[in-house]
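Any chance you could type out a protein's amino acid sequence plus the matching backbone structure tokens because I've never seen that pairing?

——
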Amino acid sequence: MPASQHQKPLSDIEIAQAAKPRRIADVAKEKLGIAIDNLEPYGHYKAKVSMEYIKSLKDKKNGKLILVTAINPTPAGEGKTTTTVGLTDALNHIGKKAMCALREPSLGPCFGVKGGAAGGGYAQVIPMEDINLHFTGDFHAITSAHNLLSALIDNHIYWGNALGIDSRRVAWRRVMDMNDRALREIVCSLGGVANGYPREAGFDITVASEVMAIFCLATDLEDLKRRLGDIIVGYTRERKPVRAKELNANGAMSALLKDAIAPNLVQTLEGTPAFIHGGPFANIAHGCNSVSATTAALKLSDYVVTEAGFGADLGAEKFLDIKCRKAGLKPDCVVIVATIRALKMHGGVKKDDLKKEDLKALESGMANLQQHVENIKKFGLPAVVSINRFSADTDAEINLVKEKCKALGVEALMADHWAMGGEGAADVARAVVKICDEGKADLKLLYGDDMPLFEKIRTICKEIYRADDATADKSVKDQLKTWEEMGFGKLPVCIAKTQYSFSTNPDAKGAPKGFSIPVREVRLSAGAEFVIAICGEIMTMPGLPKVPSADSINVNDQGKIVGLF
């Protein structure tokens, strides 16, 4: 249990390392009814669930799906993953059968800005160190499959280029699961004839890879192989697309992903089962865990809590317009996470002053939460607001948030799962169950398949971000029209932009007005089946900060990892 007021609070990793987890085979059997023969254990506390077993669940009735999203993130912290874990434990605490479905953390943020990403306090998934680092090797498999295709492209060009790939029009970049700005733009194949034909290239982070998106949207191995084959790697001089299957690449790529595609089963600190599988970022990809994990969880539990990355403007929109559109999922309830600290930051308060009561700034910052609530309602979904409690929150501030949310037609509830585990989010759990039981959710996608691609981008920018318009150079619009002529016009769009603001200016907090969204580049993900619009200054290969989290991460004399959050 939490430390007393006279003790130094334990860090997240210290709490996780002090836990006494149950063997994952026992959790699987007792909580989900999965026999050990259907598991592939990775040690005692994590395992993959076989795809054959998951296929056998197809005729079972689905449970209720709860989407956890949040306001735009701030340095004050919101706790979306912590809430997802805490709410799942809370549902079990009040007597429901629940599990959660989360994304796997990327090494980039773990060693960059964020540190660990497995929840926090007494609302965590474990084994925390494994989940945050190599876990079951899924990200390594995705990175290897992606870069295998890169190698095959350059090899094909080297050995005569029978497909006529124009080396100036190779669209496939390499990836690695680390923040490394030096690799954003490179020239490869230098060093003479033996090394191939020099060309401009670059790296993205693995979570931005189309292979990652395909991995998370594929329903099974056959669908995965088909989608991998549909990847467009480049174009000929006549602008004809060249696909991965023309290089005979998708079979070998699938071989590298054969084991990874099975969902990973772990547990929370309270022994609640959790799937953690796949991990695209929501600011540069579609930001959701795998379809296979989510759909399997719905067959195994009465309530499934899942999350979408960053704020609702990015993660929730993509979860609904891309994942739900493609997988036929329909959430029964949405939980919007906020903190009073973060709302005050959106109202203009500096991080060092957040412990002081400031009702004026809080009221101003509520505009950010209000816009997210309104946006979720546009999708026809009922919502509840979960406010993560901090010791400096005053009664006046709490009452202000509750009153403002009531005026918006949603209930705001305080939650203390960080300190108390599932018990601390019991009120939120009861509110979620009530909403699910009422059955008022009626998912309405933001745009139809037949809307032109740029109009889809414009619709998101105007309806979700409240921008005056979306802008793009003629070359960008012409590229979108070309893809429409090629038969890709019915695809959904995936906006890549800063997570810190509704606008493309990360410093524009709250609910900014009077701005446009500049689309600087578009990319076609033919295998993942969406079009990416890169807006503003967002990078698909992040850089490390001046003082990265890696500075604090170490292994102590006892062989334990320290400093990982």
